[in-house]
Amino acid sequence: MFIGIDDTDSERGLCTTYLAAVLMERLSPLGELVGYPKLIRLNPCARYKTRGNAAIALELKSDRIEDIREIALQTVLELSDFSGSNTNPGLVIASRKTPSMAAFYQRAVTRILEIEDARKLLDQEGIWHRGFKKGRGLIGALAAIGAVLPDYTYELIAYRERDRWGTPRSIDEATVWRADGLTYPRTWDTVDHHNGRMVFAPHSADPVLFGIRGSDPQAILEAFQAIKSEPIERKVLYQTNQGTDAHILEGTVADVRASESYRLRGFVAGQPQAIAGGHLFFPLQDGTGRVVCAAFEPTKNFRAIVKQLIIGDEIEVYGSVQESTLNLEKMRVLHLADKTEAFAPVCPQCNKRMKSAGKGQGYRCRSCKTHAEGLVCRIQKRELETGYYEVPPCARRHLSKPLVRMNGEKVHCSR
Length: 415
Ligand code: ATP
Prior knowledge:
alpha+beta
């Protein structure tokens, strides 16, 4: 059977992945876990998310269905933060995974859904479920079960002892850098080299101590063993759609809708402009229209790349659309436009640069009395190269595919 859980935590504490980790322990005498537990990220633009719009699905081989429902229900009641104004837990237990459930996941990771959409499918398929308060968590719980992952990565999440929740995390930073050095590129986003900080540990009051992401469970375990920290209460290795671009829709500018994420191809139609706060904007044009692309201040060193774009550069952008602006997660520079510089011509006799002879009257050399009509244009070398560029690890969206995973492409990894 398949168990899906979502929306059990609040900004103040707890975490759906922790609840699932405890549930796995409680269910282990009743059946056998099939494969890895799944950590499924859904549409990053969903309005009511607490942090990263995560939901969990477990697959269990067991015929003790009543006992399992009872334990799952008790665990949700015990480990959800019902006081959170935005906490609306959902628990779904299904005996099979159908194509309609897979299609529901596909919509939940790319579009905005209503609670009714989930309830309708649950009723149609006769799936056992419990929604608490508004029951919004049913969307994520059902989508997580339905998730089909043509591409996937792993994350090991280590959880804190309960009496430490809400206190500063104690992690030996030097060992984290060492773990990264030992296992990158099979693990990623543990540290951000350019910005000189650890990025694998949250700062909130939840039970997560840290999470190690990677392509290879063995490398993740190696990194985990290298890290020294406060005691760990439990750890779980999840299979996940993180780092796969599952949220990205193919489209043209005319297709773009708010709260969805796209890959768009077009031309830079205006010089990138910075505004107060260090946010950077430029328009992208394709055959169907124009959209403003943004590299916000938290994308740090990525802005220095975006600043080098000029009108006419052909690029592909990846990002989420909010308030009609596409927030860049990465971009691919396909073709660089010629950047020209204009100079006063050089005198053919003395080799010195000529001076203007007056408005509309060309250029002249006073000493040699030579004359030339207009400015001379020279093509400047561009610092920017073709290939993929990405935001640094400190600004990475969970679902964004990091360039370290783009095998066979010309990439400029931000590390
Ligand atoms: P955490 O990452 O700490 O577990 P969270 O960021 O996952 O928290 P939730 O508390 O799970 O946030 O809240 C997200 C809510 O949005 C859930 O109720 C979930 O069912 C719902 N949701 C998920 N995907 C969509 C979607 N595509 N459209 C509308 N609602 C969605």
